[in-house]
Design brief:
The structure holds 2 protein chains of 2 kinds. By secondary structure, chain A is mainly alpha-helical. In chain A, 30% of the residues lie in helices and 5% in strands. An 11-stranded mixed β-sheet of chain B has the order 1-3-2-6-8-7-12-13-11-9-10, sandwiched between helices. In chain B, helix 7 runs antiparallel to helix 16. Chain B is globular and about 65 Å long. The chains are: A mainly alpha, B alpha/beta. Chains A and B meet through helix 1 and helix 2 of A and helix 10, helix 11, helix 12, helix 13 and helix 14 of B.
Chain lengths: 110, 478
């Protein structure tokens, strides 16, 4: 593992490694990879072919879903960023208590 | 001399409540008081909950109303205050998995194990400290400081369920729940001198439990006695429609085994370096005690145990990196804003995740990436199959398999700051997570720092663990 590899993997996984911690990170990661390398070339007994494994359906039957909106408020309360639906609207717009959950705009119309 | 209420076990407290020697309110107050007094030093709890007066009164009413046994008895756990690990969701309370990224996350539903405990009338004292996202082995990876070992506060409490084990050991709770991915219930139980067990994989629902490595994770009891562990396990076990990996009670059909039993010992694993002499002698002394009690010792071989620890970590990194991808700061948890969406993700996850967490995510991404997935992940999966085969063979000659729980007693805080040295502590405990078999850690006869004796049984043969565990308890001087 080298610095470039660690930074490439970190970018893929959407995590950051600060410059100050990068060298220690690379050292630790390399030691761990070297440890995992003991698995290379391991002679393993043949396991049953995919086609021979029995298939079981562990999914439950479709049933009645829970009442619409049962968890909506609790879930919406967890959003880091939300604004009242009247935000930016003309004065006197009726406030029905609605809320917009804010996320970054990713699609633009330019 | 009688014990203080918070020093009682589930069995003792349950009896005292019914004998009207104690009320539920008194039992709660004793535990809550002890927790308030000692937690600042030990940091076992991240948060102590206010008393739930409705639940306390309801539990008392249930006990008052119960008819004489066997008919109409309230469950043993009725009115019993428990400590719950911070990765198990309790509706309305914060569940942070000891991470900054979930610092303010309030659970929107109960985990199934919590629902079951509520139905039994149990009470929740608070949420306990852990290694962040259950990644570690000493509770030093918590974003909120380590938990100290009640037996020696210069030492770690073990992990990742260090808070739960310390709470039970210091009598800040009657019992606790932890989770076990590579030994995370049994490790701190061993270091803190209490009982900890991991059920058969699928035996307890993972619904509402913050996922670490989904093919390893199980919720397990941490208790003052083996009898208590059995009571707590029975209360939380069972197939759950909300967890497709949970299994019916009779999926496996292990042979009925009565005492005396054949105890399999993998001597070749004990001959390896790195095992403390004190641990070895306590282990041997316990084996001799069990032999004197009529059990037979049998040498067994687990040839695939050698590469198993590496296989465990490869699979752990892979599954953890996948499970932690959901923490993006968008729908819940700590958020951060950068210049772009990608930067939002990176900032939230860098500020919110500690070093070990980010390290495992990077390594997991590595072992799953094209070009490496065959060499690492698929080989590890194969090694896992081979280990299962070894255990199946061993269980033809033995009824339970015994090792020490940990190769060393609790180490001094900071002594294992090199991550690889900490991984090597898991050498005995990971085997049961890889195979999905149930395993128990019971304190061994020892002076000085606590040490655990570790037993594994075939799938769904927990009864063998409890039987043998009780005998080991009897060997220990009171």
């Amino acid at each position: 593992m080298d610095r470039d590899e660690v930074l490439r993997l970190a970018a893929l996984a959407r995590v950051g490694v600060a410059e100050g911690e990068l060298d220690a990170f690379v050292q630790d990661a390399s030691a761990i990879v070297a440890y995992m390398d003991q698995l290379k070339g391991l002679a393993l007994p043949a396991s049953p072919a995919e086609a021979e494994r029995p298939l079981l359906n562990v999914m439950r039957e479709d049933g009645e879903p829970h009442a619409t909106g049962r968890y909506t408020e609790a879930l919406a309360a967890q959003f880091p960023s939300s604004v009242k639906a009247t935000e930016g609207r003309p004065e006197g717009t009726k406030d029905s208590g609605g809320v917009y959950l804010q996320v970054r705009q990713v699609i633009s119309h330019e | 001399m009688s014990k203080a209420a918070n020093e009682l076990s589930i069995t003792e407290a349950s009896r005292a409540l019914r004998a009207r020697e104690l009320t539920v309110r008194e039992l709660w107050d004793a535990c809550a008081e002890a927790a308030r007094a000692k937690n600042p030093e030990l940091n076992a709890y991240l948060e102590l909950f206010d008393a739930d007066d409705v639940a306390i009164e309801a539990a008392q009413a249930r006990i008052d109303a119960e008819g004489a046994p066997p008919a109409g008895g309230a469950p043993m756990l009725c009115g019993i205050p428990l400590a719950i690990k911070d990765n198990i969701l309790i509706e309305g309370h914060i569940a942070s998995a000891a991470s900054k990224i979930l610092e303010h996350y309030t659970a929107t539903y109960d985990a199934t194990v919590i629902t079951k405990l509520r139905e039994a009338g149990a009470l929740f004292l608070g949420r306990t400290n852990m290694d962040e996202f259950a990644l570690g082995g000493s509770t030093e990876n918590s974003a909120y400081g380590p938990t100290l070992n009640p037996h020696d506060t210069s030492r770690v409490a073990g992990g990742t369920s260090g808070g739960s084990a310390a709470a039970v050991a210091a009598h800040l709770a009657i019992a606790a729940l932890g989770t076990d991915t590579g030994g995370s219930v049994r490790n701190p139980a061993s270091h803190c001198g209490v009982v900890g067990m991991k059920p058969t994989y699928g035996g307890v629902s993972r619904s509402g439990v913050i996922a670490a490595a989904s093919s390893f994770d199980q919720v397990g009891p941490i208790t003052k006695s083996v009898a208590d562990a059995e009571i707590l396990l029975r209360a939380i076990a069972g197939r759950d429609v909300l967890d497709a990996t949970s299994i019916p009670e009779d999926l496996y059909t292990p042979q009925e085994v009565t005492s005396p039993m054949r105890i399999g010992v993998p001597r070749h694993l004990l001959a390896k370096g790195g095992i403390d002499e004190g641990v070895k002698s306590a282990f041997e002394a316990t084996l001799r005690g069990l032999e004197a009690a009529g059990h037979t010792l049998v040498d067994i071989e687990l040839p695939s145990a050698d590469p198993s620890l590496a296989a465990y970590y490869i699979i752990n990194f892979a599954e953890v990196s996948a499970n932690l991808a959901r923490y993006d700061g968008i729908r819940y948890g700590t958020s951060a804003r950068g210049e772009s969406l990608a930067e939002d993700y990176v900032r939230a996850r860098t500020e919110g995740f500690g070093r070990e967490t980010r390290r495992r995510i990077v390594l997991g991404t590595f072992v799953l990436s094209a070009g490496y997935i065959d060499a690492y992940y698929r080989t590890a999966a194969g090694a896992r199959e081979a280990l299962r085969g070894d255990f199946a063979q061993a269980f033809k000659k033995a009824d339970v398999i015994a090792t020490p729980t940990m190769p060393t007693p609790a180490f001094v805080l900071g002594a294992k700051s090199d991550p690889l040295s900490l991984y090597l502590e898991d050498v005995f405990t990971v085997l049961a997570n890889l195979t999905g078999m149930p395993a128990l850690s019971v304190p061994m006869s020892a002076t000085g720092l606590p040490m655990g004796f570790h037993l594994t049984a075939p799938h769904q043969a927990e009864s063998r663990l409890f039987t043998m565990g009780r005998e080991i308890e009897l060997l220990r001087p009171a």
